[in-house]
Design brief:
The complex is a heterodimer of chains A (about 160) and B (about 425). Chain A has about 160 residues and is an alpha/beta fold. Chain A contains eight helices and seven strands; from the N terminus they run βαααβαβαβαβββαα. The chains are: A alpha/beta (about 160), B alpha/beta (about 425). At the A-B interface, helix 5, helix 7 and helix 8 of A face helix 2, helix 3 and helix 5 of B.
């Protein structure tokens, strides 16, 4: 799978309270959650983000609560992929389970600048920064996770197993 | 090569003959848990998948505690979703208002988690039960939906880190300070994806409330689970519960002598004093004495970290006969109904109210800026909770300091962050 879009940069330890503040957790409505995506990290993000854009974070992206509303809000806002130096554990498993593309690359996280046009190829494990004419490599998912992603998320994956 | 306690519990919950760190495995879960924020998403997934029943009616736990008692209509609808789901599928462990408590205070108290259990919960602080010598980890709502259907969960076997505490606890220092000290040392991703095993003479003498409080915050270092080997203190605690549905003391595992750790850290507890985590990360830890003149608008004593009876007893000891500083709001929240009644019967509730504070029904409310004490722009609180991220308790321009109950109570009296010795 490939994703191509404009990069939105964020720093280290972006936590789920910033991604989707608890004051909006009284709903599971995707569109409603999308409206408040990243609100406490960048108030203007939800109004600026375009379909297919890419979030680039630093270390430990998505730390904090287990709320799946965080990757849901990001995906519903139109973000195609999140690149970070590292991801917090629960955010990472939630993203894989519900089908948000995430990739870890220290180099990409450091080199990509705000507004760069970035192409992520999950098959080859290469991120192409078209603005800066640079490429970065990332570790592809281990086969166990790829199986979940290929099935279209965890629920489809367990439905397949049962059959 | 030996196994750590975490590896032993995981292995016991698979059909495999051996496991090793880094390996992805499916495990059988003894219990799965959701609350009024995470379970609604899981219920939607469950129904969307066309599931007809849960894998085991006794092994699914639903606790409306975050925005409960319902703070608004939308939250009320979520709480009702849990009630309806529990009724429809015959879930035994659904806790309505009146029986409800903060989930991670409630489950151990009800004897729903025993040593050696494997628990997954759609709440990041599910790691609390490691205090009992169980493996427990926070997961997401889709994980919960899958676990409710299949009774299984996937995970990566974590590397284990060992934290040895030697020496003796200083006055006014509790489990909260020990874990804040660790997080301050290794950072909010210092144990990312790993198991944190706490041991040493200090831990062996630590009360169950303090152990639960420590393991509760393993997630704040990014860990998968925190764990303390069961011992006499664990056995005494489990015996006192008397859950007829779960007789016995659970399954007792200990790490082998030759178990492998990716990191071993040793701390001398004599060097650890009461601490605070300053805004906006739980790792921004300083001794209380080093934090000067930080005026406060609010003090919260409670939560899944420090809302147990011993926490309230410490706070009451400091607040007895004293007054909360004019202009400061003190909010005390017992973790469960049982703790609430104990606090009433022991006269603690009276002490809090006479001091000028309020004594609330159990709820997670203010900890996540939900209700019952949301902060306004520019306001500052000290709380015995577990997170102090930007906007955690309300306005993005409000601030949260984290501490133990003694420091929080002393700070309520002084109206600024204060050491308990300044008050008592």
């Amino acid at each position: 799978m490939t994703h191509k879009g404009k990069a939105h940069k964020f720093g280290d330890d972006i936590n789920t309270d910033e991604i989707i503040p608890a004051r909006y957790l009284n709903t599971t409505n995707r569109a409603e959650l999308a409206k408040h995506c990243m609100e406490d990290a960048d108030k203007t993000f939800a109004s600026r983000v375009k379909q297919g854009d890419i979030i680039v974070g630093g270390r430990n992206f998505g730390c904090g609560s287990s709320r799946e509303h965080a990757p849901i809000a990001i995906k519903a806002a139109g973000v195609a992929c999140v690149i970070a130096e590292t991801f917090a554990r629960i955010f990472a498993r939630n993203s894989i389970n519900m089908g948000l593309s995430i990739v870890e690359s220290q180099e990409a996280s450091a080199r990509i600048r705000k507004g760069d046009i970035v192409k992520v190829d999950t098959k080859t494990g290469i991120i192409r920064n078209e603005t800066r004419k640079e490429s970065y490599r990332f570790e592809k998912y281990p086969p166990f996770m790829q199986k979940i992603i290929k099935a279209g998320g965890l629920m489809n994956s367990i439905a397949k197993k049962k059959k | 090569m030996g196994y750590t306690i975490t590896e032993k519990i995981l292995l016991k919950h698979t059909k495999l003959k051996k496991i090793h760190p880094g390996e992805f495995i499916d495990v059988k879960v003894d219990l799965c848990l959701g609350n009024d924020i995470t379970a609604p998403l899981a219920i939607e997934e469950f129904e969307h998948a066309g599931a007809k029943k849960v894998f085991d009616k006794k092994r699914v736990v639903l606790v409306p505690d975050h925005f409960a008692p319902a703070k608004d209509m939308k939250s009320a609808n979520h709480c009702k979703m849990l009630a309806d789901f529990a009724k429809k599928y015959g879930i035994k462990n659904y806790f309505e208002i009146g029986k409800m408590g903060i989930e991670h205070a409630l489950l151990p108290e009800m004897g729903l988690v025993l040593p050696g259990d494997l628990v997954v919960g759609a709440d990041s602080h599910t790691c609390t039960y490691g205090g009992l010598g169980a493996f427990s980890m926070g997961v997401g709502s889709t994980d919960l939906a899958a676990a409710m259907i299949s009774g299984e969960c996937w995970l990566r076997v974590p590397e284990s880190m060992k934290f040895i505490f030697t020496g003796k606890l200083n006055k006014w220092v509790g489990g909260k300070d020990l874990i804040l000290h660790v997080i301050g040392d290794i950072g909010v991703d210092g144990a990312r994806r790993n198991a944190m095993e706490f041991c040493g003479p200090v831990i062996e003498n630590l009360s169950m409330d303090d152990r639960l409080s420590m393991c509760n915050m393993a997630i704040e270092a990014g860990a998968k689970n925190g764990i303390i080997a069961p011992d006499k203190i664990t056995a005494k605690y489990v015996k006192s519960i008397k859950n007829k549905a779960r007789p016995g003391l659970g399954k007792i595992y200990h790490s082998d002598e030759d178990a492998v750790y990716c990191q071993v850290k040793e701390y001398d507890a004599r060097k650890i004093e009461p601490l605070v985590a300053c805004p906006n990360l739980p790792s921004n830890v300083k001794p209380v004495k080093a934090v000067k003149d930080v005026p406060l608008d609010q003090v919260v004593i409670g939560s899944c970290t420090n809302g147990r009876i011993s926490d309230l007893m410490i706070a009451a000891k400091i607040l007895h006969g004293k007054k909360v500083k004019q202009g400061v709001r003190l909010i005390v929240i017992p973790g469960t109904q049982k703790i609430y009644m104990e606090a009433v019967n022991m006269g603690l509730a009276r002490i809090f109210v006479e001091a000028g504070g309020i004594f609330s029904t159990p709820t997670c409310g203010p900890c996540l800026g939900g209700h019952m004490g949301v902060l306004a722009e520019g306001e500052r609180a000290i709380a015995t909770t577990n997170r102090n991220f930007v906007g955690r308790m309300g306005h993005p321009k409000s601030e949260v300091y984290l501490s133990n109950p003694a420091v929080a109570a002393a700070s309520a009296v002084k109206g600024r962050i204060a050491h308990p010795d300044e008050v008592i």
